[in-house]
């Protein structure tokens, strides 16, 4: 029997259904995920580069802190906050909220990426040692983790002054630990500055590109020129980021924006997890150069192209359906009704596999990892290398959420 739609519409904000292991997950994940980020960076820079090596590569206190790191991180965030407010590009409306209103968002993330590129080229021309980002990787990650905790505390405290209709259904359970993790407020704003939307596609995502470029420049310092493997990794991941920002408007229909509160889960994912784990291949290649044949490189390029095509086409179809199900490109597609009264696509790309966007995502993640080789061990003892686990990291970060991945658009 179909649930009463009015009852669903007027259900209490005190939603008792908990995700990610409930209270236990809300305690464990904020502890273990930051440690995982630091561990993986250490592994990628260690001689063996194996997650199974024992004892694991543990950094010294001096390796975790560098006074320049917080200056660079906060300066980077401030730069993109400024670019966010620059009146470039159009302004788009989000989906209808519970109170019947729509929020407005600046669609200028791609402009921010381009301006960031110009700034990088200017710094490069002035002789800035961009390769030093390799040495700063751990201190920057530590600072990003600290900022994630502090920012999440601010978001949790300010949510108690927010009107009830602006709270996220899933993040208002009354359990402080869980609500801190999931996020109480759906769209926290300072004036017209949307904090969640800003973090979703700006400092962390573009920061990922910056870190990759820093790894490339470190390789140039060490070997005189970037390797083909490093060029492929940088090129593939730049395409992914540029695509996300070029199609920035599509993020307004994702679960991150529409459904999820803005708490530690998304803050940490945006500011720490994405820039410091999604680019592990580049960090790995600095210390562990790999030789690629022309045939091997061509095959990897084709694989990434196929993954990108599936990823972009399926996501575009989904976004068009969410925005306007009567549009000619999606009007004839088959759908099924859900318990909440919404409809899901079951034909077109979404009739081929359950999540074609995830399929494309995974194919691209594999293409990003293949330039790193199969294994790397100085004593040839084997073991899982950081390049092998990269695909699984990408999948875990993306598919832990049932409906959307962090970067999905």
UniProtKB/TrEMBL annotation:
Ranges that cross the membrane: 20-47, 67-86, 107-130, 136-157, 262-280, 292-311
Family: Belongs to the ERG4/ERG24 family.
Enzyme Commission no: 1.3.1.70
Single GO term (MF): Delta14-sterol reductase activity
Record's protein name: Delta(14)-sterol reductase TM7SF2
Known role: Catalyzes the reduction of the C14-unsaturated bond of lanosterol, as part of the metabolic pathway leading to cholesterol biosynthesis.
InterPro entries from the UniProt entry: ERG24_DHCR-like, Sterol_reductase_CS
Localisation: Endoplasmic reticulum membrane; Membrane; Microsome membrane
Reaction it catalyzes: 4,4-dimethyl-5alpha-cholesta-8,24-dien-3beta-ol + NADP(+) = 4,4-dimethyl-5alpha-cholesta-8,14,24-trien-3beta-ol + NADPH + H(+)
Membrane topology according to the record: Multi-pass membrane protein
Highest rank taxon of the organism: Eukaryota
Annotated GO CC locations: endoplasmic reticulum membrane; nuclear inner membrane
Any single biological process term in GO: cholesterol biosynthetic process
Keywords: Cholesterol biosynthesis, Cholesterol metabolism, Endoplasmic reticulum, Lipid biosynthesis, Lipid metabolism, Membrane, Oxidoreductase, Steroid biosynthesis, Steroid metabolism, Sterol biosynthesis, Sterol metabolism, Transmembrane, Transmembrane helix
Functional pathway: Steroid biosynthesis; cholesterol biosynthesis
């Amino acid at each position: 029997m179909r649930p009463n739609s009015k009852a669903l519409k007027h259900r209490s904000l005190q939603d008792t259904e908990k995700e990610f292991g409930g209270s236990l997950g809300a305690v464990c994940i904020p502890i273990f995920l930051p440690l995982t980020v630091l561990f993986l960076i250490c592994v990628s820079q260690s001689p063996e580069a194996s997650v199974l090596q024992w004892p694991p590569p543990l950094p010294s206190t001096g390796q975790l802190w560098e006074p320049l790191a917080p200056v660079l991180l906060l300066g980077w965030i401030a730069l993109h906050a400024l670019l966010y407010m620059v009146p470039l590009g159009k302004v788009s409306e989000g989906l209808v909220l519970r109170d019947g209103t729509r929020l407005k968002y600046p669609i200028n993330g791609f402009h921010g990426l381009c301006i960031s590129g110009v700034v990088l080229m200017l710094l490069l021309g002035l002789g800035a040692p961009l390769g030093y980002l390799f040495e700063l990787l751990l201190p920057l990650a530590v600072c990003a983790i600290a900022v994630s905790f502090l920012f999440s505390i601010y978001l949790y405290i300010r949510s108690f002054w927010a009107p009830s209709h602006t709270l996220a259904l899933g993040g208002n359970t009354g359990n402080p630990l869980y609500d801190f993790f999931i996020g109480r407020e759906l769209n926290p704003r300072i004036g017209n500055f949307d904090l969640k939307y800003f973090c979703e596609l700006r400092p962390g995502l573009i920061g990922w590109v910056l870190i990759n470029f820093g790894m490339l420049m470190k390789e140039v310092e060490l070997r005189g020129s970037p390797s083909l493997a490093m060029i492929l990794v940088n090129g593939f991941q730049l395409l992914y980021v540029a695509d996300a920002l070029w199609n920035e408007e599509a993020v307004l229909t994702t679960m991150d924006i529409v459904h999820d509160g803005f708490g530690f889960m998304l803050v940490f994912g945006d500011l720490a997890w994405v820039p410091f784990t999604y680019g592990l291949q580049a960090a790995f290649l600095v210390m562990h150069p790999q030789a690629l044949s022309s045939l091997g490189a061509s095959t990897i390029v084709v694989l990434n192209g196929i993954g990108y095509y599936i990823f972009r086409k399926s996501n575009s179809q989904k976004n068009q359906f969410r925005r306007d199900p009567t549009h000619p490109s999606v009007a004839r597609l088959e759908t099924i009704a859900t318990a909440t009264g919404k409809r899901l696509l079951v034909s077109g790309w979404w009739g081929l596999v359950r999540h074609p966007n995830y399929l494309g995502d995974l194919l691209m993640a594999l293409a990003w990892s293949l330039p790193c080789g199969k294994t790397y061990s100085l004593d040839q003892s084997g073991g899982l290398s950081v390049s092998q686990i990269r695909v699984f990291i990408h999948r875990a970060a993306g598919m832990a959420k049932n409906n959307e991945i962090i970067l999905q658009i």
